[in-house]
Design brief:
The structure is a single chain. By secondary structure, the chain is of the alpha/beta class. It has 13 helices and 8 strands. A 6-stranded parallel β-sheet has the order 3-2-4-1-7-8, sandwiched between helices. The radius of gyration is 22 Å and the shape is globular.
Amino acid sequence: MIVVAVVGPTATGKSDLALDLAEALRAAPGSAHGAVPSEIVNADAYQLYRGMDVGTAKVPPAERRGIAHHQLDVLDPTQDASVARYQEAARADLDAIAGRGARAVVVGGSGLYVRALLDQMDFPGTDPAVRERLEARAETEGRRALHAELERLDPQAAASIGPHNTRRIVRALEVIEITGRPYTANLPRQEYVRPAVQIGLDCSREVLDARVGNRVDRMWDGGLVDEVRGLASPEQGGTGHGLGVTAARAVGYAEVLAWWRGESTEAEAREAVTANTRRLARKQMGWFGRDPRVHWLDAASPHLLDDALAVVAAADAGTLAVAGTEPVRRSLGS
């Protein structure tokens, strides 16, 4: 059964649409498969964390409409997230959902996590001895010598990385030595590992900015500061066990922590959350806009659910053409 993924920038209503889709698909015939139960799989990197609820706009359990959710609250905030670990766990969820005869509805704006779940993407391991030797060579021979070696072994990787990024040159050579394959052979490809359709939510820059502002207001009024205080360690200004490197970078959390370090006032922190959320939304638009397989819908349409169900039905029937990215270019104002 085709996996449905709801993607796009923050504050466009992805979680609501995913719930509406899951509910509609299990309630009445709407595709080639008829009525089927649906389960939701999270693809938001920060919603993986327990306790990071307000700042990530996580749907509260009482509002999940009895629909099973996966990959929520699976990490402590002190842990660092891993795309490779997520890929393994979330793909196991997809297998289990399919085994129950249900449909998976993936939802999230973390582009790399969506790609890791849906697309061909390998995560080569590391070898400390190989890396140490390559780093030593970079010191003695210079990065240009290593780049020349990379150019001989994998010209495409060398052209992409350039001669100045020592860390990435070393990593590329490490992967080549470990796998015996070109570094570029391990890069993600726009090739689904199982049948899938991506529905992207798009809206104008003005509408998106307004939605972001409203979301930040709701988060601030809904207890974001208290949430950060309860998670952060005393050294970070809170009363909890601490936020790890990954969690502390999350928009909303990073700005509050900076305020507590004396780097801003509360008002400045709040403004920074809004500005950084808007910046994140533009970055997400750029990421998903580069994927021609995303079928874009107007997030503000009064017929959004019907439009999304039509996309799913066409995908199930095998009649869905690959979409272009014109709506994304328009919403970005370029």
